Every structure is written in structure tokens, then in C-alpha cells.
Amino acid sequence: MFTLPLICNLIISTLVFMLAAWYLRRMLEAHEIPKSMTRGLLVFVLACIIASASGDAVDWVHEKIYGPETTAQSTGDILQILKAAGLSSEPIQSH
The domain containing residue 52 runs over which residues? Predict the structure, then answer.
């Protein structure tokens, strides 16, 4: 199920992206690879992969510490809200 990322996940993956891009640029300059569109794209893609992996690691650690997140609403809850608001043609059933 898709969940919104944690704020710390966004912050850490952004910092990791910047550090990875900086390091990859320096590494490619050290190997005297000329600046080009391909080199820029390579740096971008590799930095994205590294940042994504760091974000996944943050989520994994958070889940190991706090356990899996519970869902806020189920489909039945949403249907009940729609019925109560009069947006559904089906009558409300009491439990």
C-alpha cells in the first residue's frame, strides 16, 4: 500500500542526493571524463538511485523500530461517510 514518506525520509534522501551528486562529479572529474549531457545524466540517475535507496533504508529502520503503520481508513469507512453525506444511493446500514 502506498503511504506518504516520513519528513526525515525526505530530508535525508535530499541530503544524500546532494552528497552523491557532488561525489560522483568529483569522481568523474578525477577520471578526466569530459563534461557532457551523458555525464550529467549519469550523475543524476546514479544520485537518484542512491537517494532512493537511502530513503528506503530510513523507512525500513522506522518500521523496525516502531512497527508497520496502521491504515487510517478502510474502504468500508469511506463508503459509510459517503452514505452519511447523502452522496451514495444506497441506504445506511447500522451494525
Answer: 7-84
